[in-house]
Amino acid sequence: MLRLQARKVILVLLVLVFGCGLAVPNLFSPETRKAIEQGAPAWIPRFLLPIHAMTLGLDLQGGSHVLLEIDRADLIRSQVTQLRDDVRRILREERVGLQGGIGMTPRGVQLRVPEQADRAKLMPKLRELAQPIGTFGAFGPSGNQSIEVNENPDGLIQLNVTEAGVNERIRRAVEQAIEVIRRRVDQIGTTEPNIQRQGLDRVLVQVPGLQDPQQLKRILGETAKLQFRMVADQNATDVDMLPSQDQGGQPIPISRQVIVEGEDLIDAQPAFDQRTSQPIVNFRFNIRGAQRFGQATTENLGRQLAIVLDNKVISAPVIQSPITGGSGQISGNFTVQSVNDLAILLRAGALPAKMTIVEERTVGPGLGQDSIQAGKMATIIATVLVILYMIGNYGLFGIIASIALLVHVCLILGLMSLLGATMTLPGIAGIVLTIGTAVDSNVLIYERMREESRMGRSLVSALEAGFTRAFATIIDSNVTMLIAAVALFTLGSGPVRGFAVVFILGILTTVITAVTLTRMLIALWYRWARPKALPF
Amino acid sequence: MRLLRIVPDNTKFGIVHWRRLAYPFSAAYSVLVLALFLTVGLNFGIDFRGGTLLEMQAKSGKPDIAQVRQTANSFGFGEVEVQEFGSAGELSMRFALQPGGEIAQQGVVTKARETFSEAYEFRRVETVGPRVSGELVQAGTLGVVLAIIGVLVYLWFRFEMQLAIGAIVGTMHDIVLTLGFFLITQLEFNLTSIAAILTIVGYSLNETVVVFDRTRELLRRYKTMPIPELLDLSVNTTLSRTAITSTTTVLALVALVFFGGTAIEGFALVMLFGVIVCTYSAMFVSTPVLLYLDVRAGRLDQNEELAEAKARV
């Protein structure tokens, strides 16, 4: 083992230097890294360029982490409402009369059709409402239906939204929501937001370096479903009583018929009313929206048009003249801040369902900076203490262990950079901890050498035995650590996961540096010094 | 240069007979932990309990804690825990989980920001709703259980079942003692604490495995040595390594406690306690457990013995 093959030495050194070199880009600013990436000739593979750096977790660079959950109940409600409208349409088309109306249950609708002939006519149409769910596999459709239709002999027909149907709807809603949220977050001009699905019904939004997370939360929390509807008469049918914002929340009757919706908007900008100098939002419709709006305002001259946002009436102005140009303005009890928010929301579009903030974690930039400083300090002091102690115990071999230790830390940082992993505060704690534990492999080897040498073995044979005998112990003790670390990785989230990554990489690299590098350095020492005894 | 020698050569400490002291001590401590767990309980942080945590720093001068407490309590969000921590005039406020589901928690943050943002800088704001906190409890418990099962399976393959059981007993012991540390100090128990406990699980096994590795080797070498003597020898021959590794780990953790900043102090303290406990339990708890398990019964098969013989040549 103490024979050195030049080829092998060079290979190991190259790998270690390259591994440590991977950590170098972290010293550059993001701008420098970008410049290097753009300036480099195209034939160099990207992974060789010094452009991969660790990302700092939100706890270190400051920022907001907001977890949103789609409101399941809200989504089911809207699904049931849609189902009711579909059933009503079919009843109209088929000219079937009912006994009583269409009843709403928590998960569906029910109706009573006494005539057998009517039911026979109706059932195939109702069954068509159900759609197959899921992908078409090798054995055809998965067999799940979005709606379950039951016909009872006493004339009661029940249509229920299935669990699979709800989940499918949630899945699609979350996809849409991610798009809408991305547009909204982009509007507030932040750098590199991270928006991703989590689980079935959640969206994680991470925005680094935000000074005021309140605005972020305001614009994430709103559904922003905008509708233009007519104000109805008090005794008209098919109306919703909606609270009106400019009349202190008093409910007013609003026709169920929607003239134009928010999705027909192509632009919305905050502005000031020229007469009253109140903050307002100016908007423009697309062609379809402009036509419908123009027609409605022409037909309903002199009546009140309600601007409804998330089932609240923002304002209900009287139509003074037909608005055919396709643009208009929304006024209400606005502040400068709220028209800004509203304009962003209208431009980005409405969320497909109500979303609730279920978790928020915000770290101010000052605290992040302090944490980095403290982490650096702790790392340096831990390294110095451990190195002094190792040299105190093992002399020259302590220096060798210290070199292995420094390489080990560089390798962790290098691998994290290559993987683009996130460094968090617990991650820094992990580095400090591995500084303490990484030398364990060296200690195991050295102690074994000492023992073997005490038992009367020659130096070479003791050195040899130190490595071979300690190897099994090193593997066993590190694998057990690794199992705990992997459990932590799979179940942890955010910062804790950052710790697990460091810990896992630390275990892997310590085996490499302690065994390969230490062995090489000791072999070099043996060749160079021709010693007769262990130096400790 | 004279080098340090933490542990002299060829120590012959009697280890396993100390179990007569160690076991009653550990048992009494465990009973205490159970009693504290049932009466006082863990000081759950908002990760597991839900609620809102705010850390703020006075923009100038010293923070007026009494005034902040009075104002915060007047919000009507229940009793607010206000504490000073760190050095530079920082204080933390903890609001309990508000009734009314996920949305209700947001009102707390908005109100606190409105009230205090003029005089204080908000360094950290965390809100965890009831659903998320429930899931975090599940994930945390599952993590610890899975890690233990995974390690048990690995040890069972690599060692005999008896040694695996000994190692797991030691690990459980260390978890209980660490929980005791949380109970006695009332240190906040949060997600990072789960990370600390899992790390301690890893470290505890690491310590035990090093001793047991030696036990396995000695079992092969000295087929007739009485088990108590053999176990003592296992601990003594690995004692120097145990002492040195524990010291380096403690040194690193001490650096973390004193220089790592307030946010990581709790984690570092728990780990420090854990490392000391693990070192103790590997010698005085897990190793003596082997006395009660018939370790020689798990005979190594012929192939393994042959391989071992070859390796020695």
The major beta sheet of chain A can be summarized as:
5 strands, antiparallel
Proper CATH architecture of the largest domain in chain B: Up-down Bundle
Beta-strand portion of chain A reads 15-25%
Strand count, sense and barrel status of the largest sheet of chain B are: 4 strands, antiparallel
Give the helix/strand class of chain A.
Answer: alpha+beta
- Percent of residues in helices of chain B comes to 55-70%
* Secondary structure: helix percent of chain A: 40-55%
Uncertain runs of chain A are: none
Per the CATH scheme, the topology name of the largest domain in chain B is: Multidrug efflux transporter AcrB transmembrane fold
Please tell me about this protein's structure:
The complex is a heterodimer of chains A (536) and B (313). Chain A is an alpha+beta fold and 536 residues long. Chain A has three domains: 6-25 and 52-59 and 366-529, Multidrug efflux transporter AcrB transmembrane fold; 72-168; 222-361, Gyrase A, domain 2, CATH 3.30.1360. Chain A has helices spanning 6-21, 30-39, 58-61, 72-94, 116-128, 163-187, 213-221, 287-299, 336-348, 365-394, 396-419, 425-454, 459-491, 494-529, and strands spanning 55-56, 63-70, 103-105, 108-112, 136-137, 140-141, 147-151, 156-161, 194-198, 202-208, 226-231, 239-243, 251-261, 265-272, 279-285, 305-309, 312-315, 327-330, 355-363, 422-423. In chain A, a hairpin with a 6-residue loop joins strand 14 (265-272) and strand 15. In chain A, helix 4 (72-94) crosses helix 5 and helix 11 (396-419) packs antiparallel against helix 12 (425-454). The two termini of chain A are 21 Å apart. With 313 residues, chain B is α+β, with helices and mostly antiparallel strands. Chain B folds into two domains: 16-43 and 133-312, Multidrug efflux transporter AcrB transmembrane fold, CATH 1.20.1640; 51-128, 2-Layer Sandwich (Alpha-Beta Plaits), CATH 3.30.70. Chain B has ten helices and six strands; from the N terminus they run αβαβαββαβααβαααα. In chain B, the strands form two sheets. A four-stranded antiparallel beta sheet of chain B has the order 3-4-2-5. Chain B has a two-stranded parallel ribbon with strand order 1-6. In chain B, helix 6 runs antiparallel to helix 7 (191-221) and helix 8 (227-259) packs antiparallel against helix 9 (262-292). Chain B is elongated and about 75 Å long. The chains are: A alpha+beta (536), B alpha+beta (313).
